[in-house]
Write a structure and sequence with these properties.
Helix content is 64%, strand content 6%. With 671 residues, it is mainly alpha-helical. It is elongated. The mean pLDDT is 87. The chain binds guanosine-5'-diphosphate (GDP) and magnesium ion. Guanosine-5'-diphosphate (GDP) binds next to helix 1 and helix 4. Magnesium ion binds at residues 15-16, 35-36.
Length: 671
């Protein structure tokens, strides 16, 4: 017999941290609301018969945001045996608001009272026994971050699973609202049973005016009228509208409960500290300059100060390995073409990409520090005003931020946006946020042409992407995506010391992804490129790749790029293989130029590009359509091929235009 357990709670209450504790998995934890979009499953350690599902964070069981829909559908339709409701003890009033709604589902429940370490540190206390008695539910104080109380929680979970008892206590309603809920419960009782909804929950939702519930339960007009009538009476009696009436009722109960159970001497240390830091970091005027300053610092550290020596080190290592392999192959008298395939194809292609690993890991080290400390949530807050100007809201910042890592999860994260207009616009604009796969391209060109200004060039590239996104936003706002974005409400999490585990995990995930890509896609692409550049149409090995199959194919497209300054078949081929994965641009160029080290590559590159045309090439690579994986994700989320193709065409078009501008204007100024 297998049991299904649901883990539900507010955003940023520590659900994923607890999920990882209980299941031993390594899901991404971020001090940032909205990180978990999809539900994740895992078996509880040493209880392989219990499957735990980490649900997206929500504040209420209304059907408005996609997180709410996912979580609500899960608890209503999948019949979990038990709900583990995680409650952030430093924010207990707001968290209990969801608890009260979950209790109405009449599913057995255990409350995990999280972040008790912070409560204790601030000298506050919570009478757990009293809380448990008043709610009629087991309440277990824990600290998921510090791995405290997990054993107790497991005991309580086990007990509740073995002898399930649904929460009985539901008498937190009173007065007119109480009467309305019970009256409606009578009307819909039979329908609710047929549909498998708990009556009490369904009745409350109908009082709130929940449309999906209305559609499911009130099929005849008569019932609908009766319910409307009951609600109108209630509204008249309480003097507020239906949603506010219910919220009032719940908060009145919670206030009383907290008066009995919570002793609060002061705000927690973290809260006080957060307020002080926020006065500076979310400053009306200084906020954005500070953010840009921090990013510049990160780029300089990543690409010049720390990254460059590490990269050279790795490059030398790869060079040594390649040389070793080459002399081994020579001594073993391996045939020329196989040697060339291994050395000029695989080693050159995969090796050139691999050497950028330290840069990527470093960049993500810094970014996860920013995210985990809670700073990124502030940036979203500061950016809201700016994003609003281009017709988006701060909510779109989350996917865009993820876009700096990879466009695929970023495009998926747009699901959290509630308005269709905001979502489509964000899907089109997110690929302009320069993803980490493009880093090796920037690195390669910067090393060759601007070795002493790495950090600055990087910053300029990222800013270019953002700028084009802003301009596109303005354009869309006044043309195809007219209208206003939905208001953005995000709670700012307290600043916290980033946890080393989660930062390391984040870096490891990035490194793993990168290595995986290098040895799969980049590997195969390098083989194919080597093949196409080594043979002519009659499958003779060519002495010079200028007469190869690839050269003749590439020269068809190359003239298209002449106005951008790089009419070279190698550059255009690299851009096309870049569609499989952006790192392929680097591996392709190094296979095609036959360079065996980055230093050599740099000198060959100056035969393809001038410094100016290298900038125009970079501009094109930042902006042109994303790789196939991201394209497929966009197709999925936009819902149709033609929209995805249109988006890609727009992206490639603006890339061409921007690169053209850079090159042609640059020529005027340089001459
Ligand atoms: P979710 O959004 O509910 O999945 O929350 P996460 O698991 O991503 O955690 C949000 C933040 O709270 C992260 O920065 C965690 O490191 C932090 N956190 C989680 N549990 C605890 C805890 O028990 N104590 C403290 N101090 N921080 C915690
Ligand atoms: Mg989470």
């Amino acid at each position: 017999m297998d049991y299904l357990l649901a883990l539900a709670g507010n955003q940023n209450s520590g659900k994923t941290t607890l999920f990882n504790c209980l299941t031993g998995s390594n899901q991404h934890v971020g001090n940032f609301p909205g990180v978990t979009v999809e539900k994740k499953e895992g078996c509880i350690l040493r209880h392989s018969d219990m499957t735990l599902v980490d649900l997206p964070g929500i504040y209420s069981l209304s059907p408005y945001t996609s997180e709410e829909v996912v979580t609500r559908d899960f608890v209503l339709k999948e019949n979990p045996r038990l709900i583990i409701n995680i409650v952030d003890a430093t924010n207990i009033e707001r968290n209990l608001y969801l608890t009260l709604q979950l209790m109405e589902l009449s599913i057995p429940m255990v409350i995990a009272l999280n972040m008790m370490d912070e409560v204790r540190a601030s000298g506050n206390s919570i009478d757990v026994g009293e809380l448990s008695r008043q709610l009629g539910l087991p309440v277990i104080p824990i600290s998921a971050g510090k791995n405290e109380g997990i054993a107790d929680l497991l005991d309580a979970v086990e007990k509740a699973v073995k002898a399930p008892a649904p929460p009985r206590k539901l008498d937190f309603c009173s007065g007119a609202v109480h009467r309305a809920i019970h009256a409606i419960a009578h009307v819909i009782e039979d329908h609710a049973r047929e549909e498998g909804y708990p009556t009490r929950f369904a009745a409350t939702k109908l009082v709130e005016g929940d449309e999906p519930m209305m559609a499911a339960l009130c099929r005849d007009e008569g019932d609908r009228q009766i319910i409307l009538h009951i609600v109108e009476e209630m509204e008249e009696e309480t003097g507020t509208d239906r949603e506010a009436a219910l919220a009032d009722m719940r908060y009145t109960y919670i206030e009383q409960l907290c008066r009995d159970c919570v002793t609060r001497r002061q705000e927690t240390r973290e809260q006080i500290r957060s307020e002080q830091i926020d006065r500076l970091l979310t400053h009306r005027i200084l906020g954005i300059p500070i953010f840009l300053g921090i990013m510049l610092l990160i780029f300089v550290l990543t690409f010049s100060v720390i990254g460059a020596p590490l990269q050279t080190l790795l490059e030398n290592g790869i060079q040594l390995l390649t040389d070793g392999l080459e002399s081994l192959l020579e001594r073993a008298e391996v045939s020329f073409w196989l040697r060339s395939l291994l050395i000029d194809g695989v080693c050159a292609g995969v090796g050139s990409v691999l050497s950028f690993l330290p840069l990527i890991v470093l960049l993500f080290f810094f970014l996860s520090l920013l995210e985990d400390s809670g700073y990124m949530a502030r940036v979203a807050f500061v950016m809201d005003k700016l994003l609003r100007k281009i017709g988006l809201s701060g909510r779109s910042f989350v996917p865009m931020l993820i876009g700096f890592g990879c466009s695929v999860p970023a495009i998926m994260a747009t699901r959290t946006l509630s308005s269709d207009r905001d979502r489509k616009m964000t899907i089109v604009l997110t690929p302009f946020m320069s993803c980490s796969a493009k880093l090796p391209i920037y690195g390669m060109i910067t090393l060759a042409f601007f070795p002493r200004h790495g950090g600055l060039v990087m910053m300029a590239l990222y800013v270019t992407g953002i700028l084009v996104a802003v301009l596109s936003g303005l354009l869309f706002k006044s043309t195809i995506f007219k209208g206003d974005s939905v208001p953005f409400v995000m709670e700012l999490p307290a600043y916290r010391m980033p946890s080393p585990r989660s930062v390391l995990l984040h870096m490891w995930e990035k490194a793993k992804d990168f290595l995986h890509k290098a040895f799969t896609i980049i590997f195969v692409a390098s083989l194919i490129i080597w093949f196409l550049q080594s043979f002519d149409w009659r499958f003779n090995l060519v002495p010079d790749n200028a007469s190869s199959i690839l050269a003749s194919l590439g020269s068809w497209i190359a003239p298209l790029f002449a106005p951008l300054g790089f009419n070279d078949w190698r550059a255009s081929t690299a851009l096309i293989t870049g569609l499989t994965a952006k790192e392929s641009v680097v591996s392709t160029l190094s296979v095609l130029t036959g360079a065996s080290s980055d230093a050599q590559l740099s000198s060959v590159l100056s035969g393809i590009f001038t410094p100016l045309s290298s900038i125009s090439f970079l501009t094109f690579t930042i902006l042109y359509m994303p790789c196939v994986a991201a394209f497929a994700a966009a197709k999925r989320e936009l819902g149709s091929w033609w929209q995805a193709v249109l988006a890609a065409a727009y992206q490639t078009g603006s890339a061409y235009l921007a690169a053209l501008l850079v090159y042609q204007l640059g020529r005027i100024f340089i001459h």
